[in-house]
Amino acid sequence: MTDKLRETQDSEFLIFKGQTFTYDDLLTRISFFQKELEQNGIREGECVALIGDYSPNAIFLLMALLLNRNIVVPLSNESREKHLDMFEDAKVNQIIEINENDSWTLREGSESASHPLLDDLREKGESGIIIFTSGTSGKSKASVLSAGRLLEKYKTAKRKPLRTLIFLKLDHIGGINTLFAILFNGGTIVTSDSRTPESVYQAVDKHAVQVLPATPTFLNMMLMSKADAGYNLSSLQLITYGTEPMPQSTLRGIHRLFPDVRLKQTYGLTELGIFSTKSKDSQSTWMKVGCAGTETKITGGTLWVRSESAMLGYLNAPSPFDEDGWYDTGDQVETDGEYIRILGRKSEIINVGGEKVFPAEVESVFLEIPNVRDVLITGRKNPITGEIVAAEAVLEKEEDIKSFRKRAVAHCRQKLQPYQIPQIISVTDRKLSNDRFKKIRNV
Question: Locate the AMP-dependent synthetase/ligase domain: which residues (predicted)?
């Protein structure tokens, strides 16, 4: 890994709060932290929680821990209320915390705990990464990944070095993917002061960002904010999106806002890693999924994947793989030749009298309604039809609820089948997405 980094040692590696670091700085600091880990008694094979957001020392320590053959558990500051449970699930031995000023502290976790998946990595002398699933539809699961298997694809991938704004954090498989894709191609990481549309626009303008990875929920926030005025965004070449279905209305809006920017859908899961994709075009949610070492198949309308970079298993749940190594993604898809379109998770389908309703499809239509900032579509039990569709909307400005419901139903009747139209419509000011900017559906 360090040999690859030496190829671009004079290039910019990171722009953080006005400071610029080169790849030579990265190599120097990795070496420094390897010695610090040794002096602080962090042994090979120990499970180490790394708490912090994107910062120089967070990246330096992550790399040093992997080279020290540790099993790293990246955690964000935004998930603090879950940390104690995560420490227990991940059998954490040591805890490193990155503070706001980018200094770091070390404290002990639990006594050495055993688990077959962790023991397997230790016996092979491999480093690992434990990433918790988002938990949007239930309890977060602790996925154990072999760092070697995960990083293998980056060694051969050749891409042009670009300036990429980091959006997804280190505790997300998308954030890990973005980091190593940049590093192995000699690109530049750009951070923003916060994860708000205004801060992202400012970073793109100030640092000539070329690539913006985001989620559909955040891209919709960018549209609703109307905060792009006054910023020079001409450097932007590519926007990638994933982690949840993209509402067609949001995709159209982003294409109108950035007509010269290529929009690309990504696909991946914590359990499998991120795969190469090819979108039909910038205005399409149809894509091809696959890369070397990855196989896909459609069974009963659901996408199944078998991948060489797949996780070893969960620490706190049974293995989800079948006997041949296939993983049921739970994603319902449509097919068009080699292309697929993600309709939504099987677990999120609303069954209205035997008819399937996909929340993302209804959300796309609802977001077209004037004064709607965001919406969450869920199913509610009903004694006659089994379930009915419910909409919880966040409005731009206050509006009489009866008037809003009337407008919303009228709009939905023009675009949706009768069984898809929300029968319950409420207005809320609560946040509808989690700290990974993904819709919360397990409410």
Answer: 4-315
- Same domain (yes/no): 163, 195: yes
Q: Domain of residue 285: give its range.
A: 1-345
Assign residue 381 the CATH number of its domain: 3.30.300.30
Bridge partner residues of 151 (DSSP): none
- Dig out the tokens for 363 from the structure: 């959300």
* pLDDT tens per residue across span 303-312: 999 998 899 9
Task: Give the CA distances from residue 166 to residues 135, 139, 141, 269, in Å, rounded to whole numbers and listed in that order.
Answer: 22, 26, 24, 18
Report whether 64 contacts 34 (CB < 8 A): yes
Q: What DSSP character marks residue 321?
A: B
Model pLDDT for residues 217-272, shown as the tens digit of each residue: 999 999 999 999 999 999 999 999 988 888 888 999 999 999 999 999 988 899 99
**440 domain-assigned:** no
- Copy the structure tokens of residue 214: 């985001």
CA angle 337, 343, 345 (to 5 degrees): 125
339 and 403 both lie in a single domain: no
